[in-house]
Amino acid sequence: MIKPIKIIEVKSEIGAGTRGASMGVDAIKIAALDFGSPFFKRYKSVEITTENNLLLEPVVHDYAKRIKGIFSLNERIAKEIQKTLKAEQIPIVLAGDHSSALGTISGIRMAYPEKRLGVIWIDAHADLHSPYTTPSGNMHGMPLSCVLNEDNRDKQQNKPDDETVEYWEKLKNLGGICPKIHYSDLVFIALRDLEPQEEYLIKRNKVRVINIAEIRKKAVERVAIDSLNYLDHCDLIYVSFDVDSMDSRISSGTGTPVPNGITEKEAGNLIYYIMRSKKIVCFEMVEINPTLDKENLMAENAFEILQKTTNQLSNDF
After folding, report:
1. In the chain, what percentage of residues exceed pLDDT 90?
2. Which of 90, 112, 183, 279 could be joined to 237 by an S-S link, Cβ 3.0–4.6 Å?
3. Beta partners for 95?
4. Does residue 118 surpass a pLDDT of 70?
5. In angstroms, what is the C-alpha Rg of the chain?
6. Residues spanned by the domain of 36
7. SS3 string of 181-212?
8. Tens digit of each residue's pLDDT (9 = 90 or more) over 30-88
9. CA–CA separation, 216 vs 211, rounded Å?
10. Strand partners, 129
11. How do residues 301-311 score in pLDDT, each as one tens digit?
């Protein structure tokens, strides 16, 4: 059975520290036009109302910046994801900053509360901070901790105020399910830039990490197969693709570029092979920032990867 694809646009950047990611979705659309592709006419889409107006307001919560807006936004994302899945559609989420992933994961669990969800996190960063450990307060570094119900008090260095704690608990319990995933249901690919607090959690919980050296040794088809095999005990799989998983030399068009990443060809092939699994329930692409780019190169690379994703999902899901 081939399920219809639905594009969910989240033009938000309130979780990021660098401005411009809210324009990433439109940058992908421009790339599609430049390629002469009717991609965005082919699929139904919905745009989630953002809280970007908060960017004009003073930051109130230093250790979880704009957390009230993050909660409101991700509540909307979760409900839309749940509705899309209940309608027997496959959500493809195109988002600004990576904090949107906690809404996406929440929505998947709301739609399938009895199912076990595996996560393939293709990213240079672990995004395993909490308000108790964050060095920046930017919430795009916290979505996985949120869905794992992880405060990491062992490595606490901040004392968040009561309102921050209140909203952090509300975020962790979004959809009435907490935790939403488990460490044993998580695979990192291309991870290479993490803080000691995150490294502590990964080692303590024996999280599967496929680094660049392993990718080069095995090639991406084997990496995709290994990732899916590792998550074979899960009923469903969600794939989150942060464009900074790609090498910083490819493009500067993301807020936190990191050297020694995968190439655009490796990224495209990796996604292609992962998407062959019939357990894939949702794909998300984040952190494209055209204001930091030259000639919209990152968005063009991202669009080619997006096409491979939808082509594979439309093939024989």
Report:
1. 94
2. 279
3. 10
4. yes
5. 18
6. 5-316
7. CCHHHEEEECCCCCCHHHHHHHHHCCCEEECH
8. 999 999 999 999 999 999 999 999 999 999 999 999 999 999 999 999 999 999 999 99
9. 9
10. none
11. 999 999 999 99
Q: What is the DSSP string of the chain?
A: --PPEEEEEE---TT-SSTTGGGHHHHHHHHHHHTT--HHHHSEEEE----GGGGGSPP--TTSTTHHHHHHHHHHHHHHHHHHHHTT-EEEEEESSTTHHHHHHHHHHHH-TTS-EEEEEESSS-----TTT-SS--GGG-HHHHHHT---GGG------HHHHHHHHHHHTGGG-SSSS-GGGEEEES-----HHHHHHHHHTT-EEE-HHHHHHH-HHHHHHHHHHHTTT-SEEEEEEEGGGB-TTT---SSS--SS-B-HHHHHHHHHHHTT-TTEEEEEEE---GGG-STTHHHHHHHHHHHHHHHHHHHH-
Peptide bond into 179 cis (omega under 30): yes
124: domain CATH number?
A: 3.40.800.10
What pLDDT is attached to residue 275? 95
Strands 208-210 and 236-242: unpaired
Which two tokens mark 239?
Answer: 């794939």
- How many domains are contained in the chain? 1
Name the CA dihedral angle for 144, 145, 150, 151, rounded to a multiple of 10 degrees: 180
The per-residue pLDDT for 303 is 97
Structure tokens at 288: 């494209």
Q: CA–CA separation, 229 vs 185, rounded Å? A: 11
Q: pLDDT of 163-173, one tens digit each?
A: 999 999 999 99
* Cα 50 to chain centroid, rounded: 17
d(CA 288, CA 106): 23
Closest CA to 212 of 229, 189, 196, 231: 189
| Tokens matching residue 262 | 């995968």
